[in-house]
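Input/output pair, single chain:
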Amino acid sequence: MGRARRLIALEAQASHDFAVSYLAALRGGHAVALLPPGDAPAAERFRGDFRPSLSCGVADGRWRISEHADAPGAGLHPDLAVMLATSGSEGRPRWVRLSRANIAANAASIAGYLGLTAADRVPQTLPFHYSYGLSVLNSHLAAGASMAFCGQSVVDPGFLEGAARSGCTGLSGVPFTYELLERIGFRNRLWPKLRYMTVAGGRLPPELVRLYAQRLQAHGGQFFVMYGQTEATARMAYLPPEQAADQPDCIGIAIPGGKLRIDAPRGEEGELFYRGPNVMMGYAATRADLARGAELEELATGDLAVMTETGLIRLAGRAARFSKIAGLRIGHEAIEWSLRSRGIACAVTGDDAAITVHAEATEADVARLAAEAAALPQRCIRVERHDALPRLPSGKIDYRVLAAPAPAAATAPPRNLLQDFRASFYPRAAGPQDSFESLEGDSLAYAQVSLAVEARLGRLPQGWETIPIARLEKMAGSETKPRTSRFGRIESHIALRAAAILLIVLHHASGWPIPGGAMTLMMLVGYGFARFHRDALFAGRVCAILKPMLRNLLPYLVVVAGFALAWQKIPWASVFLAGNLGLADPAKGSMLPYQYWFVEAYAQLCLLTAFAFCFGGVRRAVAARPFATAFIAMIAAFGLRYGVPLIYDVGNRKIFLLSYVLWLPLLGWAAYFARRTSQKLLLLFALTLICPAAAYLGGNWTGAWVMNLIQLPAMAALLFLPAIRLPRPMLPGVMLVAASSYHIYLFHQVIPELLQLQSYGAWGIAATVAIGLITGIAAATLQRLALAGLSRKAELAAREA
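Output:
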């Protein structure tokens, strides 16, 4: 890089090449500008504005240093060390000038309150051209700690396992990082050495702050909520971890060496100001600005804040026109300038969830252009059309009117999709801001609602189960890219549900020795408990599985009533969900036919699970080691399969007992929590031993071998294939069958048995299968329509009240 002091443009790749080049540049006394990786236009703009002497980055697949002959030889202030970009007001980035003293002071402060030592290590999770990401590197290296490169995203396969293996003691993220971690159940998978986690770059919901603070405290660690801006190098405030659970909506206190003040009397809202050695030197727009020294001692943050009675600071809103999304500060004016330069009359408002572009009539793709201008995914952009933008008497745009919520939109709930949710969760009320996850849906409801979302949006967005219904409904009106692939993706557990119910129907229709579908469904019940109810169960909210159980029993009670009318006798054993216990006989009308054992075993499983998780010791043990406890319990339950008949002998009816199949839902639970490859292989290896043993001990006949061995590919799919590719025309049918699987199970034999179709050979088998599927799908559709009608009546009654 040379001995003379130079300006170096450094591509901030997430790699050791970047880290070495960055540290070398600082050690050599150079000034470094960090550019977004892979963004050639941004690099070209920077060269045009600032004329760096060197550029470091990836070229032709290798890390290279390029020299620029037209660079001036001087003009850099001796204190200038780092340049970071932040949003400008004219569609171009505004560069923040940071001194060596700024970098050193902030790194020391962060290392101090985090208690970093040389024993600490953190995985790289944030971009280095982002001040938060750079501060993680600086603070850890300043303390003699280290950083591990484990992958691009925390949800990448092997990322968390790699962080644990490499001995990482910390984990940093923005709110979106924590949203991803929640999707994979990370709170229940903390590795042993993890002692601290940090969040900054936006507001994490207080409930999540509380949950992580409590979880880390129970784990022997600490959770740090932090606040900062690029103009303050990175950090300005942090929430002491011992107060996070009680004050989760606060940003806390000033970092060591800094001071915060609110421009208002104590207890009232005012703009937040910060003073400290990490306050930037100033902004830069041209090469000439790099010769200037420090120009301010106090930073106006642009945020409104209030001091609480406990002396902590709580943010109250924005004083300036920008949003902070996914950790990025997005200036509204910059987006307006970009769109107006394309002839689009518009105004921009927004919050920390999304940007809203208010546009007058235009044929342009406003959402796409705004997303490009903001460097955000298009899902973060909302577009509202106006005949004319509201204006003040002065002729300026009236942003207060635009930012105010529209009364009609607030009172009129989204239709169609909201009704589908309400039908699936009735009698539980579902509102526009609810999501599938917040409603605590189960695996069957997941299949049903995903079908509705797919039909409404034409696709299943990634993580749709966490997205509020109102936002899903808005996404339905946005343009989607045309599908070019002949294949589509479907989650493996949905495909397995469809395959299992088809196998059940075909087995009952043909009498062929191909049982096993019910075993797969029972395994999926356990998988669904883990995926959809783990947090509720770990928190002791056992109603999360009891409420879906009651909804699922409604059509079963219809079946019971039908048999009671036909027999003129009430099958009491089935009414009390005890028909599978061998206490009654369908030939005497005291219980339903044996095929309904699955419903009774499912209900008993729900009650048993709820009872177990009522005990705090059970919850803590399972939450601490969800895979290990499930694996051990599965082995024990497989022993119960053969031990219980020695005590409670019901003959061949033992196959309907919950004790006979209990190992299957435990297997499904373990499959969900098998995150490491070693755990997945262990589970599959155990199954290769268990299934042949079960087949041999289960009569050693063809059906027993088929029934047990098909669980091996089913489990392999759950473990190693999160999604399956199918021809796109098949997807709606597969999802419809999966969504209706429970009703198909209940009703698929009713009409074929009345018509005695099985006696007509191959044609009878085909007709039985077809009619069974159609009957079940029709029953599921009728129930959804009926529940949708009831939910609408309840909504109207609530409005009238």
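The two ends are 75 Å apart (CA to CA). Residues 407-415, 479-484 have pLDDT under 50 and may be disordered.
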